[in-house]
Amino acid sequence: MNLLVTGAAGAIGSHYVRTLLASDLPAPRLPARARAAHGARLIHVSTGSVFTPCPKDHPTAPRTACGRSELAGEQAVREEWPGAGAIVRTAWLHGVHGANFVRTMIGLEARLPTVDVVDDQRGQPTWSADVAERAADLGSRLGDGTHGVFHATDSGEATWYDLAREVFRRAGADPDRVRPTTTAAFPRPAPRPAHSAPAHARRQEIGLPAPRDWRAALHEALPGIRKESPLRETP
């Protein structure tokens, strides 16, 4: 089986995202068009930014430029590959590689006496390894009538403040060094949605295992993240 995986760029500058939208050729169209020649199955990784908290079949309602770009990618996959392939939505990713919130908190804990963290955005912190495992499970089922939209986040909900406190606590630091603040204190060119918590019913309907709690995933992920995140490289 040839499994082709494409993905959204994530939260990047809104000016750049508007340029992509204006191009009228979302990147997922290109690999989708290649499927006939190579017989590949397609998984497109998107994010919860395309909708407000709801089941997978709820109408999308992106509130940000990034969300609109990611929704355009999803629509491209549907148009080029109707009735086949899968869209996997995830959010609040952390892992060993690349800039992410958990790596940032590890670095700030070592450098600063206190850290102000947003407490009015809610989501589902998710280990990238869990997303990869779920995508692989889903990929093995494509072609057997399985297609459409699936959510791949760890379970439970937290604010960024909650997540930061958990990182500090598991690092042996005082979680009270993390202080709550608001989104308005950290303006961004691509604003984050206030609530990004996808439902998971669809994946269980086709026999995929239920997602584990985000705290359990963070506990397993942290040793590797800390090992590969020396302070001089922490974002």
Describe the structure concisely.
This protein is an alpha/beta fold. It has helices spanning 14-23, 29-33, 35-38, 65-80, 101-111, 128-139, 160-170, 201-205, 214-227; strands spanning 3-7, 41-47, 86-90, 93-94, 115-118, 122-123, 126-127, 148-151, 158-159, 178-181, 195-196.
Radius of gyration: 18 Å
Structural class: alpha/beta
CATH architecture: 3-Layer(aba) Sandwich
Q: For the report, how would you describe the main beta sheet?
A: 4 strands, parallel
The helical percent reads 25-40%
**Secondary structure tally, helices:** 9
Topology:
Blueprint: E1 3-7, H1 14-23, H2 29-33, H3 35-38, E2 41-47, H4 65-80, E3 86-90, E4 93-94, H5 101-111, E5 115-118, E6 122-123, E7 126-127, H6 128-139, E8 148-151, E9 158-159, H7 160-170, E10 178-181, E11 195-196, H8 201-205, H9 214-227
Parallel strand pairs: 1-2, 2-3, 3-8, 4-7, 5-10, 6-11
Antiparallel strand pairs: 6-9
Helix pairs in contact: 1-4, 5-7
